[in-house]
Amino acid sequence: IFNYKLEIFNPKKNTEKIKKLLKRLKNEFLEKINNWEKYKPIRGKIEDFFKLCKDGLNMRDIHKYTHDSVKRTVYLNVFLAGLITLQGYTTKTALQKLAEM
């Protein structure tokens, strides 16, 4: 079952173009959901990277009071996370060990 957005009933819009886009998105989604096993290791690695950022780089709770200080902290932590992955910590086990330190 696939329902179109209400926007489809707007006579000023190009409805065929919107229908084609939504149908293409639906087909891509169904293809990926049927092959979800292929994406499972990638998803696990992404989750480990976020765990490293949250726990290893202390980004779970950011106790800052200004927008600029939050930006500086987040930029620095993303930079550090990038450096960590450039140093070769790219495997699932290496990221897990770093996050748990």
How does this structure look, described?
The chain has two domains: 1-34, no CATH class; 40-100, no CATH class. The protein is 69% helix and 0% strand. The protein contains four helices and no strands. The longest helix is centred in the middle third of the chain and has 21 residues, at 36-56. The model has no long low-confidence stretch (mean pLDDT 80).
Topology:
Blueprint: H1 15-34, H2 36-56, H3 67-86, H4 92-100
Helix pairs in contact: 2-4
Protein name: Transposase
Organism: Methanobrevibacter olleyae
Keyword list:
flat, 0% strand, single chain, mainly alpha, 2 domains, 101 residues, Transposase, 69% helix
Instruction: Report strand %.
Output: under 5%
How many strands in all?
A: 0
Uncertain ranges: none
Total count of helical runs of at least 4 residues: 4
Instruction: Tell the overall outline.
Output: flat
Distance linking N and C termini: 47 Å
- Provide the helix percentage: 55-70%
- Largest beta-sheet characterization: none
Instruction: Write down the overall mean pLDDT.
Output: 80
Number of domains: 2
What would you report as the Rg, rounded to the nearest angstrom?
Answer: 21 Å
Q: Based on helices, strands and strand pairing, what is the structural class?
A: mainly alpha
Order of helices and strands: HHHH
Protein name: Transposase
Task: Write a compact overview of the structure shown.
By secondary structure, this protein is an all-alpha fold.
